Amino acid sequence: MDLILWRHAQAQEPGEDIEDLARALTPKGRKQARRMAQWLEQVLPTSCRILVSPALRTVQTAAALGRQYRLCEEIGPGADADTLLQAARWPDSRSPVLLVGHQPALGEVAARLLTGQAGEMAIRKGCVWWIAGREDGDGNVLRAVVCPDLARK
Prior knowledge:
The chain has 153 residues and is α/β, with parallel strands linked by helices. The protein has four helices and six strands. It has a six-stranded mixed beta sheet.
């Protein structure tokens, strides 16, 4: 199974006057989302299921891809690695899954799948980490890490 982790692009800073779920992408974030969407469009299988946190910044990030997605309350801010892996049906899903979400949960998933231990890896805003389960069941492999500044055409 392929699991693609996409951290939302740069968003407004948290503040007293805006709820966390209502934080929108900045102009830089919209540009980051478009760049990553262009790269993903070239490599994502059409059968890929896309699950998106209900936060505005993740919805705006996913919308740049122009594909249908499903809002998934469970992977919103504050989710943990177990919840993300359950939502993705790791490792048993028949099709690849793209999760558009948040730190630290995405980094916790990456650490667990790549090292076999609990921990956290730093996934930068707007970046995609593509993890594949090995066919022989012997661990997982990191297929790609792509960030918006590297996804330029």
